[in-house]
Write a structure and sequence with these properties.
Length: 328
Amino acid sequence: MPNQAADLELAAVTKAYGETIAVDKVSLKIPAGTYCCLLGPSGCGKSSTLRMIAGHEFISDGDVMIGNTVVNDLPPARRGTAMMFQNYALFPHLSVRDNVAFSLKMAGIAKAERLRRAGELLDLVDMAKYGDRLPSQLSGGQQQRVALARALVTNPTVLLLDEPLSALDPFLRIRMRAELKRYQRDFGISFVHVTHSQEEAMALADMVVVMNDGRIEQVGSPREVFNAPKTVFVAKFMGGHNVVPEAGRSYAVRADRIRLASSGEPGSAATVTDVEYQGMTVHVAMTREDGTDLLATLAESDFDRAPVAVGDRVAATWQPADRHELAA
Ligand code: ADP
């Protein structure tokens, strides 16, 4: 049975928990077949948004649409979504195969058919030979693949993933990240993935949705969001940027676009406060005369050509094209 890709749309979706507005009139259209990451700090409303799409949380106001259907009042199993949780939530007493077949059993599908489909999905995630094992007999990465197979077995139009990589060690996290991206491409459906890691979002997403305090700050490709942040929050949260105040406004300049010249040359006069060797790059922290902190990330070879030390006076320069104006 082929997966049906569909657009997912949020129209002024709001979630209130008593006095707390966790999600504040969020509007967003995720085209079919998109890898979308909801990115932001803890408490910004990412999970609440995901749970409202899934149907695990009532929508206080607004609409969630999948394809042409408003799904606000549909139970989770009838929305065409599937959810993969942070801790995978596998049933410990069921075999891998039965875990994957579980939702088909709930849907009343005959045993032979559900085992066949579970087998198909296990094949797809390269876990066919572990069908008889219990979850406790699998590694973290293998458990994740089973959780993914279990979510995909219902042929969802949208897969929802809540911090799916956070239980893995850093090495495995990077490997499983690549696998998630591959499965999303293979299945051709949208994945909506909640993360607080900008690195993870940049690596995975076609569409990054940066959230802050229940609202969307910016939506764009990883390059757009990183290279042209629109707000101070996005520039600071994505990292690698300097926020430079000027005449009551601010603009952002990437740390790797700052060059250092000798004191007295044109540019921002600044004093070096820290030099950090990072291998391929050297981080030079400075304080400008107006008190603004600046960070320059220099290629090791550039640094070596004109090394600086703490206490040195320098001129920090950048090209006009590297300024990105930020909204107040
Ligand atoms: P995130 O996933 O970005 O960490 P959440 O959506 O979990 O954010 O939470 C957003 C806000 O809503 C936070 O202030 C959080 O404390 C609050 N919140 C989340 N779930 C509940 C709940 N069940 N009851 C009350 N407040 C909640």
